[in-house]
Amino acid sequence: MAPKRTLPPSPPRRSLWMMYKGIEPRYRILLGMGFMGFSMFGLWVSDRLEKAYPPEADTRVTHVSHRDTAAAESSQNRTGSDKMAARGRMPMMQPQVIVLKEGTDTSQGVPQLLSNISACLAVCDTIRTTLGPRGMDKLIVDGQRRVTISNDGATIMKLLEVVQPAARTLVDIARAQDAEVGDGTTSVVLLAGELLKEVREFVEEGVSTQVIVKGFRRAAEMSIARIRELAVSVDRADGAEYRSLLEKCAATSMNSKLIGSQKEFFTQMVVDAVLRLDQEELDENMIGIKKIAGGAMQDSLLVDGVAFKKSFSYAGFEQQPKSLDAPRIVCLNVELELKAEKDNAEVRVDRVSEYQAVVDAEWKIIFDKLDQIVAAGATVVLSRLPIGDLATQYFADRNIFCAGRVTKDDIDRVCEATGCRVQSTTSGLAAAHLGTCERFEERQIGGQRFNLFRGCPQAKTCTIVLRGGAEQFIDEVERSLHDSIMVVRRAVKNQSVVAGGGAIEMELSRYLRDAARQIEGKQQLIVTAVAKALEVIPRQLCENAGFDTTDFITQLRARHAQDPDRFRWHGVDIEAEAVADLFAKFVWEPALVKINAISSAVEAACLILSVDETVSNQQSQDMMAGGQPMPGRGR
Questions:
Q1: φ, ψ for residue 226 (rounded to 5)?
Q2: Which residues are catalytic?
């Protein structure tokens, strides 16, 4: 029998760990670094693929309000899956829910409401120190490196570029106050912020915002009714007393401005300018303001008529007359110069005489226009479109003044003052289409030449020429005059005034505290909070002036509570540094300014308290800011 074959013994099996231990230490480090580099390469490839081929849908629910709905659907899906599994079939995938687009962020609830209030208070703190005659100025540098120095609330709010959605409401009410009444822009922002500050504690304690909103509106109605009850009206039939009313209102608005030291000079100028307007329309655009660098503020002047800067002129302009008595003025919207051929224009002629005929026809057209203007009897020609060198020399030879490229605003004011109308053609031009004034002259003001039309028979317009040193200084003077003009304009329409300096606010605060004692429920607390918020105006006036705030506010509360009829107009007298009767010291403001400020501040506070959720798209915000959209998903 053949011997049985036996297999050689197999070598012992070596595990990966034993193989790794058999490698020299220096090669172990190289092997580990290789595995690490390979892993990092795999992660990089995976990330690039995910960015190149994003998922088509997001499996997460992107809105909190659908949380219960999603849970119910998930329960139903599990029940259906169990049934299908029992039948031996695979469960079906449920559709994915997308509510908001990618990059959308949502915030809601009481934390969001408190965040909005904090943002508004931060904006209020920025302009808080600009209130009153002793308020400070703000120097703002925009993105184009332009410098603005101002203490006007609307100007500062506009230049701050607030991006917080709720805080932008304060910017809107400041602009609305400036457009409606011109003054009180800082007060309306401070009042809105103080209202939110006073009710912040109620929001933290869980009081419904609808209760607060209802209390705000109730307090606003009571305050506005009280202002109308206390306002003092001036009879317009008494001319001297009526003018004195307007001057006092203008001077009060200038107290807190850069021109406060020269308010006597500018008060007369502003009142004269407003009284020269059409008293029915009172269009502030008919008051032109021209700025000329150089000189002092006292060199500013009011032109009873129209004044505008000399426009671009051609050769022959110096030969024209520089002053005319009783001129005949025509305003055109016609181009008085030879037309230049366009690049693609083509004129084919066979003979030289044909080319000469084209040139002669072109010259005949413009000479016919010039002859028609001269035949109408015009001695001053103004046009919105250019007046060329040919027409300039033509008018100079006939002792006629002309100016082209005059702005639309200046042309409109010339027509309003002289009685002429803008003509779009010279055909049929007659003397009835011309206007007139007592005197026209071109004179040097500072470093510029101005055309002045004085003694206009239908003058419902005027021009204020401002002088000053720096450009920023003149710009601030213009803003200050605009606010004063708007205040006087409102005083003309509504002849009722109240005392300034925080007097009316302290009287309203006293009135609301007394009225709150007759109110039941939570509304009593809200009305009392509004009464305390109104004290922010006199308190801030004292802080900016460096007075003892506690002492002044205590005195004001005591006097208004002691005898409301006798001390109703007592407020903070900045000049005397005491509590005094400001109505007797002619610190007057139109009642409409206070009414509009309270109503706007209350409505802004109600709007902010009514918002409990903010939905923002981060990608859109980044694109608006000029940056790249950030990756992200809705949640």
A1: -70, -40
A2: 152, 185-186, 483
